[in-house]
Design a protein that fits this description.
Elements: H1 2-24, H2 58-69, E1 78-80, H3 81-102, H4 111-123, H5 125-131, H6 137-144, H7 149-157, E2 168-174, E3 177-186, H8 196-199, H9 203-222, H10 227-246, H11 251-254, E4 262-265, H12 266-272, H13 278-284, E5 292-295, H14 298-310, H15 313-326, H16 334-348, H17 356-368, H18 373-380, H19 383-406, H20 412-424, E6 426-430, H21 448-464, E7 486-488, E8 493-497, H22 512-529, H23 550-568, H24 584-601, H25 605-609, H26 618-629, E9 632-634, H27 636-645, H28 651-659, H29 663-669
Parallel strand pairs: 3-5, 6-8
Antiparallel strand pairs: 1-9, 2-3, 4-5, 7-8
Bound molecules: zinc ion.
Zinc ion (ZN) binds at residues 525, 529, 586, 589.
Length: 688
C-alpha cells in the first residue's frame, strides 16, 4: 500500500516537471513574446537556459535551467536523467519486491520465495543487529586458523571462500578463440579499487588513504581489536596493498586488449608462480582439465607470487580478514555499515546514505535480478516496445553501413571486413529469452549475510561450470531494469535492457527527432564500440584478429589520437582534466554513435518534412534531445573520482565533445566559425 503511494508521488513529481515546462517556455528567437504551451514531447523547454548561446556551450544552453534547479539530492553523488529513470524503474521494482516479501506462502525453492526472502532479510535491520557476528564468526575463525602458506593457498583455492582478493580468477570467453571458454586470471584485490589511490601523492589521494586507514581501524575495533592492534593491522594491510598496487597496471594500460592477453600452458604458469599453487586452485574449481590459462598481467602474478612468501602469514590473515568483512558490511550491524558509508563519503561526497530499501533493492537486483526480471518486464516493457527498438537498431545498422561505405579514408578491403562485422552484430533487446536458473541457490529469511555468501557461491559456481561447454550466447550481463547498455566484443553483440528503453531515452509519444537523439544515439554508441580503438581489434566472429590494412589502421589511430587530444583539454574542475586515453573508447563511441543516429534520423518522414515543433526544426530537436539526456549535476568529489576511474567523460563533454566535431550541428543552429562549438576544420575528427 505505502509503496503504491510513494511511486504515484514519484510519477506525479515528473508530471509537475513537465507542467512547469509550459510556464517557462520562451521561443529562442523572440524571448519577449507571450509563451504558448509546449507542444512537443520529450524535450523539456523549461530546461533550456536562454542566457547561454547554443553555439557557445550547447550543453549549458540545453540544460542550464535544469542544472540550476536540480541540485544533487543528499543521498546521491550525481543527479541527472539516468538517475531519474533509475528512480522510476526502482519504484516498479520496489512494488514487486515488497509484494514478494509480504507473501509468506510462496512455495519453498521457487523464485518468488527466494526474491521475497532475500529482500525481506536485507530489510530486516533488527534481525541483522540481533545476529551480530553470528554468521560471520565461522569464517573469521577459519582465517584466524591459517598458519602457513599451504593453509593460505588452500583458503584461496576454495571456491567457498569469500572476498579472497590477491588476484582475479574465473571462466570467460577466449578472446582469440571466441567459441571456447578459457580460464582467466589477472590483477585484482585492491581495497581502494584503483592503483593510483595508493601511488599518487596529491592531497586528495593522501586524504583517501587516510580515510581508508580510519575505516579499517574502525572495523577492526568493532571486531574486537584494541585500538593499537587495529592501527597495526590497518598499516599492514595498506602496506601489502600498496605493493600490489605498484605491481598493477593503470586503467589506461588495462584497456589494451592485446597486451592483456597472455595465453600460457597451465604447467608453465604453475612453474612461474609456484606459491599460488595453481594446480590446487584449478582442481578445487573443477578446472583440472584446463590446458592453458589466459593471464591478463603476468608481472602482477609474479609480484603476488613473491608477496605470498615474503609477507608474514599474520599480515596475510589481516588482508583476507579485511576483504571478507569489508565485502559484507551491508549485512552486518549498523556500526559496520556506518563505517563503510563514512569512508565512501570521502570518495563521493554523498551527504546521506541511500534509504535502506534502495540498498536492499540493489542487492536483490544484483543477486537475483533475473528471478524477478520478468515481473518488471511485464509491467514496464511491452512486445510493441521491443519491436520498435528492434526496428530502430536495424535502421541504425543500415545507416552505419552507409557511413562505412562513404568514408574516404578506408580501403575497400577494410570496408568489406567492417561491413561483415556490422552485419554480424547480435542484438539483444529488453530481457533474456532464457532466464538464469536459480534452482540450486538456497535463500532464506533468516540471515541477510548468509544470503550474500550463498549468492556469491552460486554465482561463482555458475561461472566455473561454463568451462568446457559451448558458449552461452543467450546470457545477459545486465538485469532488465538497468538503465544502461553494452557491447560485448567476444560475442560481437549489442545489448539494451528494458530499463533504458524508456523515456527520456525512448518515448513512444515523442517525435522521431527526440528518440533518435536519445536511444538512437545509445544504439549508435554501442555499435561504435565494435569499431572503437579496442573494439576494432576483434572481427565479425568476436576474435582478436587484425583485419585492417596497415595504412587504414594508422589512419584510424591518427583520427583517434586527435579525439584524445580534444578531450584531454576538457577541464571540468580547476586543475582536473579529462584523461583522453582512459576515455578514448567511450568518446569514440559517443562521436560515432551520434553521427550514425543523425544519419538514420535523416531518413525519417519528420526529418524530410522539416516542420518545426515549439520553434525548433527536426534537426535542432535531435540535438536538443541528445543534450538533454546528458544533463547531470555531480558532487565535486564524485566528479574527481569519475575522472580518475571511469572510462566515460562527464555529461557536459559527452554532449559538447561530439557536437564540436559535427558540421551537421553547426548547420542546425547556424553556428559560425569562431564560436566555441565550432572547431576549425583541421582540428575536427571525423571517423564515420
Ligand atoms: Zn560505452
Amino acid at each position: 500500500m505505502s509503496s503504491t503511494t510513494i511511486s504515484r508521488l514519484a510519477l506525479a513529481t515528473l508530471g509537475l516537471g513537465s507542467l512547469a515546462a509550459t510556464t517557462a517556455f520562451g521561443p529562442p528567437a523572440k524571448p519577449t513574446k507571450p509563451t504558448p504551451p509546449q507542444q512537443g514531447i520529450g524535450i523539456s523547454l523549461a530546461n533550456i537556459d536562454q542566457s547561454v548561446a547554443p553555439c557557445e556551450d550547447f550543453y549549458h544552453y540545453a540544460n542550464g535551467t535544469w542544472l540550476k534547479n536540480n541540485p544533487v539530492p543528499p543521498a546521491e553523488t550525481r543527479w541527472g536523467s539516468f538517475n531519474e529513470l533509475t528512480n522510476n524503474n526502482q519504484a516498479i521494482e520496489k512494488r514487486i519486491l515488497e509484494k514478494a516479501a509480504a507473501d509468506r506462502s510462496a512455495k519453498p525453492g521457487t523464485n518468488e520465495q527466494k526474491v521475497g526472502d532475500f529482500y525481506a532479510a536485507a530489510m530486516d535491520s533488527a534481525a541483522i543487529e540481533a545476529a551480530g557476528l553470528k554468521y560471520l564468526q565461522p569464517r573469521l575463525n577459519q582465517i584466524a586458523g591459517l598458519k602457513s602458506l599451504a593453509d593460505i593457498q588452500k583458503y584461496m583455492a576454495d571456491p567457498k571462500s569469500f572476498g579472497t582478493g590477491w588476484y582475479s580468477f574465473g571462466v570467460g570467453q577466449d578472446s582469440k578463440n571466441s567459441t571456447q571458454y578459457a580460464v582467466r586470471m589477472g590483477q585484482g584485490g585492491l581495497g581502494l579499487g584503483d592503483r593510483d589511490y595508493y601511488l599518487k601523492d596529491d592531497g586528495r589521494s593522501k586524504g583517501i588513504r587516510a580515510a581508508y586507514r580510519n575505516y579499517q581501524i574502525a572495523i577492526y575495533q568493532l571486531l574486537g581489536d584494541s585500538p593499537s592492534l587495529a592501527a597495526t593491522n590497518a598499516d599492514a594491510v595498506i602496506a601489502l596493498e600498496t605493493k600490489m598496487a605498484q605491481a598493477s597496471r593503470s586503467r589506461v594500460e588495462l584497456r589494451d586488449r592485446l597486451k592483456n592477453y597472455n595465453k600460457v600452458p597451465v604447467a608453465q604458469a604453475a612453474k612461474d608462480y609456484p606459491n599460488l599453487n595453481l594446480p590446487l586452485v584449478l582442481k578445487e574449481s573443477g578446472l583440472s582439465s584446463a590446458q592453458d590459462l589466459i593471464i591478463g598481467q603476468p608481472e602482477y602474478l609474479a609480484a603476488v607470487n613473491t608477496l605470498m612468501t615474503n609477507t608474514p602469514i599474520a599480515d596475510q590473515q589481516q588482508y583476507l580478514r579485511w576483504h571478507l568483512v569489508s565485502g559484507v558490511t551491508s549485512a552486518l550491524p549498523k556500526a559496520y555499515n556506518d563505517a563503510s558509508f563514512r569512508f565512501s563519503q570521502v570518495l563521493t561526497g554523498a551527504k546521506q546514505q541511500q534509504p535502506r530499501w534502495k540498498r536492499s533493492l540493489r542487492a536483490t537486483d544484483g543477486a537475483l535480478g533475473e528471478a524477478f526480471g520478468q515481473l518488471y518486464v511485464d509491467e514496464a516493457f511491452s512486445p510493441a516496445a521491443k519491436a520498435r527498438a528492434k526496428q530502430m537498431v536495424e535502421n541504425l545498422r543500415a545507416a552505419y553501413a552507409e557511413r562505412i561505405m562513404a568514408t574516404d579514408w578506408m580501403s575497400a578491403a577494410t570496408k568489406k571486413e567492417a561491413i561483415q562485422k556490422l552485419n554480424a552484430f547480435a542484438v539483444k533487446i529488453g530481457y533474456p529469452d532464457k532466464w538464469k536458473d536459480y534452482s540450486k541457490l538456497k535463500i532464506t529469511r533468516t540471515s541477510a549475510l548468509q544470503n550474500i555468501f550463498a549468492t556469491a557461491e552460486w554465482a561463482n559456481e555458475d561461472n566455473l561450470k561454463k568451462f568446457g561447454k559451448p558458449i552461452d550466447r543467450g546470457e545477459w550481463g545486465m538485469t532488465p531494469p538497468t538503465v544502461n547498455a553494452y557491447y560485448n566484443s567476444s560475442m560481437n553483440e549489442i545489448v539494451f535492457p528494458a530499463g533504458i528503453l524508456q523515456p527520456p531515452f525512448y518515448d513512444p509519444k515523442a517525435d522521431d527527432a527526440v528518440n533518435y537523439g536519445g536511444v538512437g544515439a545509445v544504439i549508435g554508441h554501442e555499435m561504435t564500440h565494435g569499431f572503437d580503438d579496442q573494439g576494432r581489434r576483434s572481427d565479425a566472429k568476436g576474435n582478436l584478429r587484425d583485419w585492417w590494412t596497415k595504412e587504414d589502421g594508422e589512419k584510424f589511430m591518427a583520427k583517434a589520437a586527435m579525439v584524445g587530444k580534444q578531450y584531454s583539454a576538457f577541464s571540468p574542475l580547476d586543475s582536473v582534466h579529462v584523461n583522453g586515453d582512459l576515455t578514448m573508447g567511450e568518446n569514440l563511441a559517443d562521436i560515432g554513435g551520434l553521427t550514425i543516429a543523425y544519419q538514420a534520423f535523416q531518413k525519417t518522414a519528420q526529418a524530410k518534412a522539416g516542420k518545426q515543433i515549439d520553434g525548433f526544426t527536426p534537426n535542432q530537436r535531435f540535438f536538443l534531445g541528445y543534450a538533454q539526456i546528458w544533463r547531470s549535476n555531480q558532487r565535486p568529489e564524485a566528479l574527481r573520482q569519475q575522472i580518475q576511474t571511469d572510462p566515460h567523460s562527464p555529461g557536459q563533454y559527452r554532449t559538447n565533445g561530439p557536437l564540436m566535431n559535427m558540421p551537421e550541428f553547426y548547420q542546425a543552429f547556424g553556428c559560425k566559425d569562431g564560436t566555441k562549438m565550432v572547431r576549425a576544420e583541421a582540428d575536427r575528427s571525423r571517423i564515420w
